Amino acid sequence: MPGPLRLKGQGASPGFARGTAHVLPHARTLNAATAPTARDRECLLLAVDETVTALRALADGSDLQSRAILEFQIEMLKDPAILEPSLARIRKGESAAFAWASAMDDYVRGFEASDDELIRARSGDMLDIKNQVLRALSGEAPLDFPRGSIFVGRDMAPSMFLAHDWSGGGAVVLFDGSVASHVAMLARSRGIPMVVGVGEAAIESGRELFVHGGEGSVHDIDGVGHRPADDTGAEPSSQAKDQPPQNCKTADGVVITLCANIDHPAELEGLLPQLFGGIGLLRTEYLFPTPAQLADEVRQEQIYRQALTWAQGQPVTIRLFDFGADKPLPDAEVDLTSYLGLRGIRLLLARPDLLRTQARALMRAAPAGQLRVLIPMVTSPTEVEQTAAVFAAEAAGLAERRIEHAIPPLGIMVEVPAAALMPEGFQRAAFFSFGTNDLAQYIGASARDSAAVSGLHEASRVATLRFLHHTVPLALATQKPVGICGDLAADPVALPELLACGFREFSMPPARMPLVRKAISGLNADGSKARG
Amino acid sequence: MTGRQAPHAGSAPHLASPVCARVEVTHDIGLHARPSVVFTRLAKSFPCTIGVEVNGDGVWLNGKSIVKIMGARIRKGFVLAIRADGICAEDAVKALCALVERNFDEEKSHARSA
Prior knowledge:
Chain A has 532 residues and is of the alpha/beta class. Chain A contains 17 helices and 17 strands.
């Protein structure tokens, strides 16, 4: 029987939780013996088989007319010819999901282009077949843990955090990790207590734990007989319901726009759009945890549309997939963990299949509201031009297929110092959004997921504020909208400096908004403290 | 009305030699979804290989592939050549031509569902 447990790490998200430990088993080894293409081929054949079986069961219980439609789909799926283009794509190195989605899109386009009404009508069946197989491809049971338990592990995938039902409480304890990681941001925005960097600890599942997110400590119940007295930090969840509507003003009357940072439109439930100046950042990389979902244009469109509908005409800024570094691409077979390598738009331009699907989904959702699209990790104007060209090409394709769509304005994340210093070069960019989390780690040359260099983050922070003083005015001089969406935007201590830099648009987790609103009302627009 | 010609079957019925016949599509709509299902299912019930050529264009489609048959956009008035090679080739050609002549049993099916 192990002795009392007392662990100390960094508090990544305040709050207090008590629950049963659930220790994540060791990660399974991916990319086992089979070569990638062989595995993809097998997965696709299996997914097709599963879909046929499901359709067969459905057909058996259907009336004659429905059965005829299902039989058509079954026959199409059972025909080896339908797989030929997909298998050819897999041989060329595409993943199963993208090979299937692209090949089926070609069929759909072929059907839609027909001058025969009846053939055109069959394109719906092809889309249906496409999506059913995609769902079957993503069918593996997601990793999850019991409701209300304390998650313990080396690190936690943001998608796992998002897939979990937190309504029963619980907390996160990580051996490694950093307070600035994405999963930590998620924990803060949802009010889930989290402690990181406790070091390798021998905790077994089933142990009862206390987690104090504010002070970064973890005890078992035998270790402390009492609940810590100062249960501070908790409860950021009391919503802004009794806050005055509309956006806030500084003490000297300058309007400041406060927008929401979210990872899933589900976070918007229960929030009044009138309290926000729209959505300043909807991250998309956690929305589709499997390659099949990434390839599913219709599913993407529905989720984007949800956010646009919620906003009731206010701007909704959706960021293109920002994979790479600490956010692994679901179907990646190469190492993309470098913060300085292939990530953000660099990765999307290297993987145009991803970008094209997302561009189409965004443009199809765009008529539902005021959509703006944000490009992550931009370094050079060429990247914006190439992205715009992809949107234009996909828009032409949608127009040809007579699908309703709109081309949104494209803005850039300012998170690479090179881009921050040269904003006037980005003629194709419609707006700028400063991403201070990455900017700070690049200025400090200290990776934000590395606990070993976390001591340098404070130094980077101070230098970042000075950097912003130099570069925000350059961006403002272009006369284009300029905002900030990093963690810094939600930090009341940094607000005076950020106002002084010239920021007037701040985007943050909804739970942080009351605090920021209050802080801004006590400041003048130049960042000085208001009198009285 | 029918554009069917007599199958020129080989003299020895058990010697597997190719059999070919032509038939005109009289179904109002042509080979859309349901007729394609019925046609390819019947084709698949024979062990021989089955090819379909549309309007003598020289391209032989796999008669057992609904993807290929649907893809050919076969409509009313098109003339199909149906060719079978292997065991039961003659039966296959006869049955498939008859199916086209019967308009893929469409009316019967409607009558049943009514």
